[in-house]
Amino acid sequence: MITDLHHTTLFVSDIDRSIDFYRDVLGLELVSRSDAWGGTYLGKVCGMPDTDMRLNIALIGVGPKGKIFELIEVLQPLGEPTDVSSRGRGIARIGFEVDDIDSAVAKLKERGVTFLSDVITVAVEEGQHYSDGKAVKFLDPDGIVLELAATPGSWPGDLRPAASARRLLPPPPPSTLAGALGGVFVRCVR
User: Fold this and answer.
1) Exposure of 154 by Cβ count < 10 A (0-12 exposed, 13-18 middle, 19+ buried)?
2) What is the Cα–Cα distance from 185 to 180, expressed in whole angstroms?
3) Distance between CA atoms of 86 and 68, rounded to whole angstroms?
4) Is 123 helix (H, G, I), strand (E, B) or coil?
5) How far apart, in Å, are the Cα atoms of 95 and each of 84, 147, 185?
């Protein structure tokens, strides 16, 4: 049935500012950009039949396997951007894997990024998901939580991140920005 992750989408308030951040600050690839893209077909697929939905969209490439996420600035209809299906729940964060987390943090600090904490080592029982991995979170220009994650040198058995299914946890309350690393919750409240 599901064979891979196709894309993730972030609603942003200013497409140019967001492209500058993801491309120039984080060093990701701008794959393509389309302005005033869409039409009634987009309104229909988003659950708003007969709506001429228009947006600015940028595709951002991550990593050697060409994973994509979309930055979307909704132009019309005016109002809070949402797919009808999201119903007040959204993405908790996007995590980016890095080889050297301390070096990545230092480079991003030089570029003006402020982090929500120091780098932490995930302290869970040995052999559990993310055991001894390192992580740190920060915000993009729209306040979307982003995470840098570094995995330990070796993962026991099938617990390697690329080979394992992620454990699903219940969603956090809508009033908090929360992240789950293994069995440990890290709450980030704005």
Assistant:
1) exposed
2) 5
3) 20
4) coil
5) 25, 4, 15
Q: What amino acid occupies position 111? A: R
Q: How far is CA 49 from CA 35, 72, 82, 84, in A?
A: 21, 20, 14, 11
Give the number of other Cβ atoms within 10 Å of residue 17's Cβ. Answer: 15
Measured distance CA(81)–CA(18) in Å, rounded: 16
Q: Pairing mode, if any, of strands 120-121 and 53-62?
A: unpaired
Q: What is the pLDDT along the chain (190 residues), one digit of tens a residue?
A: 656 777 788 989 999 999 999 999 999 999 999 998 888 887 777 777 888 888 899 999 998 888 888 999 989 887 655 555 333 445 768 888 888 999 999 999 999 999 998 998 876 666 565 667 888 999 999 988 898 988 775 333 433 344 333 333 333 333 332 222 222 222 222 2
Q: What separation in angstroms does the CA of 63 have from each of 69, 71, 98?
A: 11, 17, 10
Q: Are strands 67-76 and 53-62 parallel, antiparallel or unpaired?
A: antiparallel
